[in-house]
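re the bet — no i am not wrong, look at it urself. input seq straight from the record:
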Amino acid sequence: MAEGPLSGIRVFDLTLAMVGPWASMQLGAMGADVIHIEQPDQRPGAFMVPPTINGTSIGYISWNMNKRGMTIDLKSPEGRANAYELLKTCDVFLMNMRPDVAARLGVDYETVAQINPRIVYCTVTGWGQTGPMRELPGADGQVQYFTGGSDANGAEGESGEIYRHSTQFDSTTGNYACMSILMALVGRKKTGKGQRIDISMLKATTAMQTPRIAEYLMSKQSPTRLGNKAQSTAPDRAFPTADRRELGVSATSEEEWQALCKAIGHLEFLEDPRFATNTDRVDHRDELYAALDPIFASMPLDYWVLELNKVGVPNGRAMRWDEIRHNDQVLENNYIGPVETKDWGKVWTSMGPWHFSNTPTRWFRTPAIGEHNDEILEEIEAHRAGQSSQPAGRGQ
C-alpha cells in the first residue's frame, strides 16, 4: 500500500488548544509520524472548553487525530533527556505557547537546533515574538476583536459579531503553520539545513483579511456590516423561500445576472438602470433585494434549486449540520466520516480536504494521554543504543 506524502517525517508536537494541534493533525493525515506531547499529570483537554465526552473535551478529541500520544515532564532531568533523544529523530518541532515558555522548558530554538541542526522549528504565538503584547495569551475570539474581524461582521445597524464556532482564526493560523512547515521541508531538501519559523495569530489573521484591508486603504471607509449580503457583488445573499428555508444565490457576473433574470421570469430587470451593472446593483442593493425577496418567497427551495441549476446560476441551500452529515455529495466524497475511538465511541469528523492520487492520506483516532509511551520510549532507547533505523533528519 502506498504511503502518504509525508511518510518518513517525524513531528515533535508540543501543542495545546487548537492552533498547534490543528496544524499537526494535517501533517499526520499526510503521513507524518506526529508524536503529541502532554505533561504526565495533564487532564485530557484541560485547555479546552465544554462540551465533553467521558470527561474529555470534544476539542481535544477533534484536533488531535492522526497522532501518537506521549507524556514527558520537561521540567525533570529525565524527561528532558528523553525529549532531547526523541528530538534527534525528529524532522519538525511544533509549539504554540507564549514566547518565553520554550526556554523555560529547555526546548528553545538554540537548544533544539544544537541537538538536531536539520530540524524545522515552528512556534506559533498570539501576538508575535517581540512587542508590548508578546507575553499576553491569544485566543480566537480575542484575536477576532483585536484584528477588526468582528467589526466587519454582523447584521446591518447592529453591533459587530465574531464567528460563533470560535475557531475560524485558530484554524487559519494552524493552516498557515502547516503550510510554512511544508515549505521549510522543501527548503531543507535543497539546502540540507533546518530553520526557524515564527507565526503569530495576529499576523496570520491580518493576512486572512487582506480584501477588507485593501477596501479600507482604497476608500478610507471601514467595511459596513451587511449580515448575509456580500460586500462587493449583488445579488449575492441568502433568500427565504416559500417553505421557510433559505437559498444562497450568487450572481457574480453579468452572464449570471442575465441568467438569473431569465430563471425568475423577470427580464424587465435587465432594462432597469438601477441594476444595469454590478456596480449599479451594489449601489442600489436595498431596491434590488426588495424586488427579489417576494419572488423567491413565492416558491419552495427545491423549485429554485432546479431552475437556477438549469441556467447555471451558482446557488446553495442553507443546510443544518445534521443535513450536511447525511448529504450524498459529502458522503460520496468522504468529506465527513466516522472514526472509532478507544475512550469516546464513534466520532464523526472531517476526513481531510485533499486527495493525493499516488500517496494517499489517512485519518485515525486521537490517542489517550500517554497512550504510546512504552513504544516511543522503546524507540528512544533503541536510538540511544545506536540501533535506530531512522536517524535524525531522515525525512525529505
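see?? The chain has two domains: 10-208+327-384, 236-318. told u. also The radius of gyration is 25 Å. so pay up
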